[in-house]
Protein 1
Amino acid sequence: MKSLLFSRFLLLLPWVLIVIIVLDIDSSRAPLPALAPRGGGGSSGGSRPAAGRPPPERRGPEAALPTIYAITPTYSRPVQKAELTRLANTFRQVARLHWILVEDAAARSELVSRFVAAAGLPCTHLHVPTPRRYKRPGLPRATEQRNAGLAWLRQRHQHLPPPQPGVLFFADDDNTYSLELFQEMRTTRKVSVWPVGLVGGRRYERPLVEDGKVVGWYTGWRADRPFAIDMAGFAVSLQVILSHPKAVFKRRGSQPGMQESDFLKQITTVEELEPKANNCTKVLVWHTRTEKVNLANEPKYHLDTVNIEV
């Protein structure tokens, strides 16, 4: 009996020693530091990146994506916050997007400043007023605001070495965008184009494509324009913007509906355009307009006991 117990003890002894050694090593190991929270890839929680400061570096697959810069002119009106909310909800789902929001105002408004602070998006908030003489009906709109966005973009990148992958497009705050559109535009080499829905008095307008090249325009208004396209219907490579520092939206001599052509003539030709959206046969952006708000019953003086931002 004793010999049997002794033999079993010898069999178990190595395993007991191994368990003791493992426990001793584990107890002497230093605790791991707590993981820092991941950032939002730009300004979030109220901060706005200063002009010229690059966004925080990202790691993983998103880091290889070109940044999409969206320039959005905006102006004060009853539906402004509603329009910006809808647009932000779309942008929030797009990887590597930097929003350049430009107010038509002499100073940043409190409403838009609070909105930007809570949007949770990489966003640069600018402002520039439209001169009163250019606010007459029939004159091009948002010229100064788009040019301010272009100036900020060039200033931010002028001292950075090439290549600087990125894509710029002009995102008016009353349009509706499919997420697929951002996938299409991100591969822009120079200037890419696609159809726009609900514009020009038609269900859609689009570039006409043959053998992968733009050869004309399906449009309801002035098909003789050099680039008969809506502002929502094209994107430009960041390298093109940087290599054409004088390309801006013009005031003098520019007619309504000609801003797109006047701008694109400075940076490309029709032959160089890159058709997207299945050779310009899919509508991925709509020129929607919010119904004019009826405020006939709004009191002249504030009567409510609380002041609610709308």
Note: Residues 81 and 112 are 8 Å apart (CA to CA).
Protein 2
Amino acid sequence: MKVIQHTAKTLHNALVSNSHDLVQIYDKYTKEEKLLLEDGYRAGQTGSLFQPITVHSDSDWISAHPEEPQDFQSFYRDRHRKIPSASCNTVYIQTIGSFGEAGVDTDQYVEWLRDYCQAFFHGLSVKSLPAVSVSDTQCSFRVNSNSHNLQILTGDLLQFLRRKKPKDAFCIIGITMIDLYPKDSWNFVFGQASLSEGMGVFSFARYDDNFNSKCYAGRLTKQLQPKQGDYSVFEGYYTPPITSMLLLRSCKTMTHEIGHMFGIRHCQWLNCIMQGSNHLEESDRRPLDLCPICLHKLHVSLGFDIADRYKALLSWMEEGQSQTSGTETASAHHPALHFPKLTQSFHSSKLWLRSCLDKLGKD
């Protein structure tokens, strides 16, 4: 295992820069906000809210995909980065195919994702579009020759999203529980995006803990070879049960990918939700939120109050949460939805958010 430990000076330059106009932007933060952001300089030390990046193997993202680090200055000066405007200020979520089984209603799960993104990108409107079936997209599909599960073609899904994208969209994100592939020569892909067009599609299928096991319920018989255009094969097709861990993983993927839509590249400074991940184990090691440098990037794009954003995220985790007794609760805003929120896997994140608010003097 290798620990990437940057010096305080390097992290300061990445966060603030030496450019006068960017220093002026940074100086708009309050004293308490600066204390929080600059706590990253102490990453890994006792009591610090932030941790350095740890590389566990050569298969981890940083080892396998060398990239130029993006500091705040290079982010801010990027002429191609997207900023929400008065006419394009909404994130749209488009579900594709069936979601969830046994207990948690599809609409409830998508509502949780929508509300989490609303809190994470505080101040930006997030809306869910009416669900569509795989046949509605008219996409190509196949049975994977190795894992024997159904897969749908990302390029066709992006074309569908391009047609569906509302005029006021900052971006549109397609999500599905069906596995994806980008072209015939590839085994699979977690997702694909067009940042210039503000759209992407991502699958949560491989977030099922049993996906790689021989008993995975999504495996089809080897003899089954459905014909293109015969979408009946997707009727009643297996979708993984909605668990707290799957919800956590879904929230991570959604916010990471939407973060890219703002022009935030993979983080190489500190342990951060914007780190790249090559595999599920690496993705699970990422924290749920942003490091100070990436938080600064998002803040300059949206202009939220940092404490208010943390409070919104904490409120999402605590509102309507599942109890150990299994007692069902109903949201005050959505009384028709009766499933307790599956936030058991968010416990460490709740503690972290409370520590951040304490640092800001807003506990």
Note: Residues 16 and 23 are 6 Å apart (CA to CA).
Protein 3
Amino acid sequence: MHTHVMVDSNKDSTRSFLGVKKITVVFVLGGPGCGKGTQCTKIAENFGFTHLSAGELLREEVKSGSEDGAMIQNMMMEGKLVPVEVTIKLLLRAILESGNDKFLIDGFPRDEENRAAFESITNIEPDFVLFLDCPEEEMKRRILARNQGRADDSIQTMRKRFKVYMDSTIPVLDHYNSRGKLRKVDASRPIDEVFEDVKVIFAPFDAKAKNSLGRSNIGMGMGHKRVISLVERLCRATRDIIAHIFSKLRSFYPPACITRKALKST
């Protein structure tokens, strides 16, 4: 299913006029440590999607020093949630600036409020939701083993993140499951094994890409044929012009005159 992005700037200050753009959106959800970022990177590399991480977009906005960035930083420092409209605004801006028409949105929506706001503001409903299902114990093990220096990877914050995930994200999964849009993958296995199942889910997009490439190649072939035909016509026209010039020359210099001149010169 393709979605047309149409945002009415008159309805809300966070809605900028985006025109109409035909896009494909896939939400990628799962608990902390389930491997969302890793799988999104592999999907992007293999199927031509643009990977958008809501958390990363917020962090980049803070680094930019913009007014929104300062507001986001202040709210984070106070332990408050960033308004969902701000996150949606950053996602929409990234979608428009990417130039692509296929997007993976990683870690969003986090709850039913996020989901409802995103669909209401953007008129976008995902083609499907990829759910990376991983047991809590395995996710804990991965988080503790990451050793990436992230401040939110302590035992205390980890427990809080799992509780938030269970309380908030599961209802979102239930919503999309009821609409037949949930694609569940066992993410407890090694990365490449998980991706084998993910590839099956995204296979239709690979087929579309190949068909598009095939049509492009056919178009190039037709273009080459047209060029060859044009060159052949130009050659024939040039030959006719040369023949015409020689016929004119013969009328000025009859063969007999040419012969006498040739004899005198000898």
Note: The two ends are 87 Å apart (CA to CA).
